[in-house]
Recover the amino acids of this structure.
């Protein structure tokens, strides 16, 4: 099983340890509901039989381990938090697949496509409720991890970030029906969705017993990484890595008229005829594949791709600058810098 | 504004205080996402303008206040927990409306019907994430409420109950496609959904500083009340109070072939021809109104209504018995007994 999100700040052994902890946590429960979750997480086929899926992104969980290590903490302290953030990330994906009508994710049928939307909504709700249950286990860990005020701070950070993602999702969906969406509106949504990587980075620090200044720096770092990553997800949907091969999730986002920083730039800066043409395309109920080709052609004319890449580079720079306030050693700062680049690039 | 769930254990002033606290908590946030929530909770119209809807059930929040009072605690201590449980209950309703394709709830269009399924799924997720945020405020309350171990226990109880509701929901949905569903399977699902009233009763005790024995008794009380109430919800869908007038939620449940204790009883105990006829009806993809009439006619022949009422009465008795282990005064036990009857009846 390969992880697209394995990052320089942690080793392959760390990644295996995380995967094993996550499997144990979800697998400890017996009902078929949990088989559906195991399917989504890439450990089982649709019949619940063990079967590893090709690629799963674990950036959120791995970032918790990486920041905890940089802050001097152990994998053991970080693990319940890593599980919690990874599960929150995945409940959002399960619901997003229903919301965008994605039939496939990671080259396999989605939960809603296999079991229907009612089960998919419920499976997502279950993953959401489970996320924090792993954190309560921290009460039995050695201090300072077991400090109830730290556990409570972690829970609060995670819920606040989840709520911010929901705020972003509200805007993202409402932008689908608007032609004129500005660049800063798009960056604002990307930042709200990025709150979850902000929580991931912070929770690693909480697990390690970091002080407030370092926690704030870690959160700023994670939010900037998350913002850049989310903008890059949209760019990759427009210009996929493997030439002209968009996966189902990328196609679904574009066809349902989710806006990107590049389309927002073209709408703000294009000539009147460019803007009119984009407006006509976005007036359609659902876009077809030839519309997507026309959109990318227009975006090339308006230099919107290079504009977007510049903004992503700026955010990457902001993330790296934030690390200066963590007080971490140069070696750890360098590892997290590389991790940040990897998480943004692998979007 | 009237509340169908105002219960004998609390006064109208308590109910107003709760409503005001809930409104303040949700209303403190500015984005349109929260206007959608305010609409669902009955305080605003679809444009976000203040407008009170006719009837809202607040049994979950009110039960927290009632058990906290019985345990010697104040409304102030109970309020954040009451808000949390009420919000969890409501996130489940918002998602249920999508899952069952209910176009109306409380005689008004549902969120998904007004804003689409994607926004409704997201609004539910947001309410879910908000639920616990009110609990973190308890850290600033006077002891014993601010004791972080008690706050953590409350959070864990709430998440565990939410996960149990999701387990029940999984079964409930999967039963839709099966004709033969047994009485005990149905009672098991009702009990899992009842976990949330169990958490409500327990959280009132936690707010009041109750000891473990009383907390366990309160949880048993609440789960039994919740189980009986859920069974009664299904009975009322089959045999509504106002003769032959089913609301949209009741119709949606029946037409999507959600099973009830009464249909399960008829399937287990009916004659071969009764069972075959029920099987034929439940083989249809969606039931129409004449099918529902035939189902109720069959259930009358098999005495399934009286069987179900007997089981609900037994569960009510179990709930009341559990109160003996709380150590509460006779007056408080009597108030909670009346509250239990009211919550079950007003299903």
């Amino acid at each position: 099983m390969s992880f697209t999100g394995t990052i320089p700040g942690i080793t392959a052994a760390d990644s295996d340890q995380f995967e094993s902890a996550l499997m144990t946590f979800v697998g400890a429960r017996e009902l078929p509901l949990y088989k559906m979750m195991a399917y989504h997480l890439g450990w089982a086929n649709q019949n619940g039989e063990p079967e590893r899926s090709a690629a799963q992104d674990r950036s959120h969980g791995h970032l918790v381990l990486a920041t905890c290590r940089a802050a001097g903490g152990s994998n053991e302290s970080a693990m319940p938090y890593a599980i919690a953030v990874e599960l929150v990330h995945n409940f959002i994906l399960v619901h997003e697949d229903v919301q965008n009508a994605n039939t496939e994710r990671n080259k396999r049928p989605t939960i809603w496509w296999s079991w229907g939307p009612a089960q998919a909504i419920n499976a997502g709700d279950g993953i959401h409720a489970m996320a924090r249950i792993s954190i309560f286990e921290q009460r039995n860990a050695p201090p300072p991890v077991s400090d109830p005020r730290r556990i409570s701070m972690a829970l609060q950070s995670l819920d606040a970030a989840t709520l911010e993602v929901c705020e972003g999702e509200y805007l993202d969906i409402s932008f689908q029906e608007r032609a004129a969406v500005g660049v800063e509106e798009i960056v604002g949504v990307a930042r709200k969705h990025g709150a979850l990587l902000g929580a991931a980075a912070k929770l690693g620090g909480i697990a390690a017993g970091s002080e407030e200044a370092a926690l704030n720096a870690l959160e700023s770092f994670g939010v900037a990484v998350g913002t850049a990553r989310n903008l890059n997800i949209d760019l990759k949907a427009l210009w996929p890595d493997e030439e002209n091969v968009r996966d189902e999730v990328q196609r679904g986002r574009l066809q349902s008229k989710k806006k990107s920083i590049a389309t927002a730039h073209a709408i703000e800066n294009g000539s009147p005829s460019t803007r009119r043409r984009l407006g006509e395309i976005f007036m359609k109920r659902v876009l077809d594949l030839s519309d997507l080709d026309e959109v990318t052609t227009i975006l090339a004319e308006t230099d919107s791709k290079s504009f977007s890449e510049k903004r992503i580079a700026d955010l990457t720079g902001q993330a790296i600058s934030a690390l200066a306030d963590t007080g971490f050693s140069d070696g750890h700062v360098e590892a997290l810098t590389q991790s940040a680049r990897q998480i943004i690039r692998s979007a």
